[in-house]
Amino acid sequence: MKYLSEEQNKCFVGTGELNKAGDSLAVFLDKYDPDKYQNPCNTVDTLVFTKEDSQVKRILLIKRGNHPCIGLWACPGGFVEFKENLYDAALRELQEETGLHDIEAEQLKSYGDYDRDPRTRIITTAFVALIDEGSQKAQAGDDAREAGWFDISDELVNKTEDKSLIKEEWLCRLSNADKNINICARVEVTYRKGILKNRTYKVVDGDGLAADHAAIILEGYHHVKEAFNA
User: Fold this and answer.
1) Catalytic residue among 84, 96, 146, 188
2) By the number of CB atoms within 10 A of the CB, which of 18, 24, 174, 178 ranks highest?
3) Is 146 a catalytic residue?
């Protein structure tokens, strides 16, 4: 299989020795069959927040115009092209679905539960971006039926813990006055005591948000708020 050029392959030669089958890297790659095993698909989602007076104000969402989760609100995103970096894919999908451009973003996290999408095994990588309130207007495009800015807030409503684990229940509130939309998603946040938290966000009730996007949105919101308070 020829995936990269011979010049690009040079940095993967290692010590230059042959493997147990007696193959060099070039021969190994010629024999390699990427379709021998089932492979996951990769998508990207971008959470664009606005800031005003050192506070996070709103988040940009799109209404899905196609299956799955048609008619529900979600973060703008889509599939990564075969030879495309994740960051480039995130910004491309953002512009295609919302018209936003000249955005800087950073990678938040990958979400890979095997049952998070009914089409196939899909792993998504989420990015977060922060722009000034009112600096860009959104216009729905591509697979997005609508696009809109939603006020965002959160509330911790329950917390339990044992010797090693802390479990929290959060409300993630999203509202758009122009569209008369009010969403109150419920998300469970679990993390361990100690240095390595292994913090996980799980949707209890998405309340109009697609798939696991309530968890992704709340985790991104917490990430940006922590950055403000750092």
Assistant:
1) 146
2) 174
3) yes
